[in-house]
Structures are given as structure tokens and as C-alpha cells.
Amino acid sequence: MDRPWLYTCCDFGQLIDYSKVEIPPILKELVYFDDINFWLSVMMMVFNPIFWNVVARFEYKTRFLSRAFRSPRVACVFLAVIIFHLMLLRSRRFQLALQSQPRFSDCFWISPILDWLGPSLVAVGVFLALSCFWVLGFYGTFLGDYFGILMKSKVTSFPFTVTSHPMYYGSFLEYVGMALWYRCPAGLLLSTVLLGTYLVAISFEEPFTIEIYRQKNAKKST
Question: Which positions ≥6 away from 38 have C-beta within 8 Å?
């Protein structure tokens, strides 16, 4: 007699015929999962925060970039240029995905709302990101903490009065706005992926940054 309660989780995985698992038809109509632009966009969204976190932490522990460029500031600029170009590439891949994916059919009452809401979210996102850059400065924005370029004190002014991570959430709003502007369901899904990668990045970056400044304050007190 078959007793399914005796199976382990791995046994259940072997019992599933994955060849029969299908994506719901309505989802297939909203998102083309066989579109290479969609997956390249996902790849860039996942890769970017992994890249800058791994490189920045390795720099913090070994100073390999600072030694290579003989200056932590020059090394930080070098990494910032790479990050900036990776962000441009990610944005381009996202744009190509929007162009190759299905769109909402125009509706007489919702179309004007999207025409207003999409650009508005993009504008708010850009404003948050630029405000963050203005307050933190170049080195504060591009991981200067990991290079030993520390700020005098924690920034608490706007836009940090709105959210503790305005650069990340601003970027997320930009992508949501673009997705609505293009009327693209896949764009909303990709925006969710971006938010997920940012939340994971925050879970690693925030405690590490707190520890950097804790050590700084501990050295001052001694």
C-alpha cells in the first residue's frame, strides 16, 4: 500500500513529473518567458548587486584595489565607473525587454491614468536617487565606506527622512514607472525582481556598514 506520509521531501520531488508542469495560459499571454531579453534583464538585475557587494567586501578585507591604484579614492572611482556602466547596461536590457514583451491593450479609461502615473513614478524615483547622491556625495554613494572613505556622521536629512534606502527604492520606482508607461506586465514582474535583489542586498549591506562605523567609533573612543 502506498503511504505518502512516509516519503521525505526529496522523495516527493522525484514523484513530480515536471514535464507536465505548465505555466497558466493567461500568464503566457502577459509575459513571454521564452524571450531572451526578459532573462537577460533578470540576469543583469541579479548580477549587479552581487558584483558590487563581493568586490567591495573583498576590497574592505584585502585593499586589493587600493593597492593596485595606490589610492583608495582612485580605486573607488574605478569601481564606481564599472557600477555606473553596469547600471546603464541593466537599464538597456530592461528597455529591450519592455519592447519585446506583450502590452496591456489600450483602455479608454485606464490609458490616461497610466500616461500620468508612469512618468510620475519615474520622476519621483529619479528625484529620490539624485537627492540621495547629492546628500551622500560621490564616495558615499559608490561604496566609499568599504575603501576607508568614511563620512563624519550618519546622514539623517532628506531623502533619508522618507526611506532609509532612497537610492534603491528610487530605482525601483523608476522601473515600475517605465513598466506602466510601456503598459508592460513583464516590466512589472521585472521590477519586482529588481526590488527583491535590492532587499537581499540591503540585508547584507546594512549590518556590514553599521559594523564599519561601529569600529570607527570604537577607535575614536580609545
Answer: 31, 32, 97, 100, 101, 186, 190
Question: Within the chain, where are the H helices?
Answer: 9-15, 25-30, 36-62, 64-69, 72-100, 111-141, 166-181, 185-221
Judge whether residue 12 has pLDDT over 80: no
Asked whether the beta carbons of 138 and 167 are under 8 A apart, the reply is no
Give the dihedral of Cα atoms 121, 77, 72, 70; nearest 10 deg. 170
Q: Which three cell numbers stand for residue 130?
A: 539624485
Q: Indicate whether 186 pLDDT > 90.
A: yes
- Distance between CA atoms of 168 and 175, rounded to whole angstroms? 11
Q: Are 180 and 133 spatial neighbours (Cβ–Cβ below 8 Å)?
A: no
pLDDT tens, position by position, 192-210: 999 999 999 999 999 999 8
